[in-house]
Amino acid sequence: MEAPPVTSMPVTGGAINMMEYLLQGSVLDQALESLLHRLRGLCDNMDPETFTDHELVYLLKGQQGNPFILRARRSLSHPTSPWHLRYLGQPEVGDKSRHALVRNCVDVAASHSLPEFLNEMGFRMDHEFVANGHIFRKGVMKIVVSKLSRILVPGNTENTERLSLSYLVELSVLAPAGQDTVSEDMRSFAEQLKPLVHLEKIDPSKQRH
Amino acid sequence: MQQREEKQLEAAVESLISRVAHVKNALHSFIYKLENEYERLTWPSVLDNFALLSGQLNTINKLLKNEKTPSFRNQVIIPLLLSPDRDEDLAKLTEQRVPVFSHEIVPDYLRTKPDPEVEEQEKQLSVEAARIGPDGAQKHIQTLNKLCSNLLEKLNNPRDDRDSESAAIRQNKPSFNPADTNALVGAVAFGKGLSKCRPPGTVAPGHPGQGPMMSGGPTLQQVTIGGGSSQQAGMGGPVAPQQQGQPGKMPSSIKTNIKSASGSMHPYNR
């Protein structure tokens, strides 16, 4: 079940195709404070926002080809908020000069019965993790600094252990397809975070091996 | 002679009035800024205002020291008429600040001696100065000048030395680890290191029909490799993915075609 090529058809009739532009990096624990200070200075002035999220990744296996992946995310700090379901397509292999990773992105909100619904549909949960950290915003850009934790007992989000001694830093923009100036803005913002963090385009398919 | 002095006096007083008016305006705008725009005020702009005031006071001092200025000490101001009634002309002249020329305002506005406290301090300072003596004073002045010039030199000149020191310190403490970056990105993108608390690559025992939990990493990898290896049908025998523990959970998509290698089945026909 390959995802249809992005440029030829919209994902839902009449809706705009949204692309996610992404740059990722990491920062060690001891440098976290200075990174947060710098982000507070660079980003829009808002109260520092922390979040704790539990993300579950569901797979639907077809007869052949790659499985279809959906990501369900819920907030542990706001338990009554709706669940957030997201589909991320394959990264677009456009010209190499594009500075950010671009992929098709569909976001919907869902009720609390989402896990059972996905199970009934035939999806199986592949892995889950807990992410907590800080979120900053600058215009349309969203910067998330998060600490990932592994869930030791499935379903129990209290019992977690950290995945590594670093925080993951992600700079992302959701924009309609075809806007290429976005990656330029992202790159100049990433320049301002050097040498604390090196935000770069990391192709997930290259990470597998 | 008298006329020349009078003219000089008049000119000096006029220029003094205009300088003082400048200082007044600068103070007025500064106070306005401090009272109304204090949220947006930055320290450099406050410093600018202070610098402006100091410059204006300096010009007043220079004016007073000017040789063309007659000594104001020789002039005497005597109030000729004091009345408690409101004087409109005076009020207009002073912008409503002195509406009445009466007994209350005379001691403040026509004062020539400094405040008693200020007089005390001045007396103390002159006693101190007399105690040190001219030689001691000269030595103090020289030390002060030397300290100031040293400081200026340090601030102006070798900025490169300081930069290289700080750069060396910063290099010793890297703030990110590329290996961690890869690990985290792998975890977020496809659950590397997250599935069942076991790193991918080990064989999953996997009980068939165990509900939603499945071996994550190995499964993802094997599906893609399975897609690729179905084209290797002529090679004979299943390839590695099958060995990763497929306990009959899903029908394998790999079709194997074991045939004896004969001339007609050669994949690379000449």
UniProtKB/TrEMBL annotation, chain A:
Any one Gene Ontology cellular component term annotated for this protein: core mediator complex
Record's keyword terms, sorted: Activator, Nucleus, Transcription, Transcription regulation
Keyword field contains Cytoplasm: no
InterPro entries, per database record: Mediator_Med18
GO-annotated biological processes: regulation of transcription by RNA polymerase II; termination of RNA polymerase II transcription
Function comment: Component of the Mediator complex, a coactivator involved in the regulated transcription of nearly all RNA polymerase II-dependent genes. Mediator functions as a bridge to convey information from gene-specific regulatory proteins to the basal RNA polymerase II transcription machinery. Mediator is recruited to promoters by direct interactions with regulatory proteins and serves as a scaffold for the assembly of a functional preinitiation complex with RNA polymerase II and the general transcription factors.
Self-association and partners: Component of the Mediator complex.
Record-given protein name: Mediator of RNA polymerase II transcription subunit 18
Encoding gene per record: MED18
TrEMBL record, chain B:
Coiled coil: none
Compositional bias annotation for Gly residues: 225-237
GO biological process, one term: regulation of transcription by RNA polymerase II
Biased composition (Basic and acidic residues): 156-165
Record-stated family: Belongs to the Mediator complex subunit 8 family.
Assembly and oligomerization: Component of the Mediator complex.
Record's protein name: Mediator of RNA polymerase II transcription subunit 8
Organism: Eleginops maclovinus
Organismal lineage: Eukaryota, Metazoa, Chordata, Craniata, Vertebrata
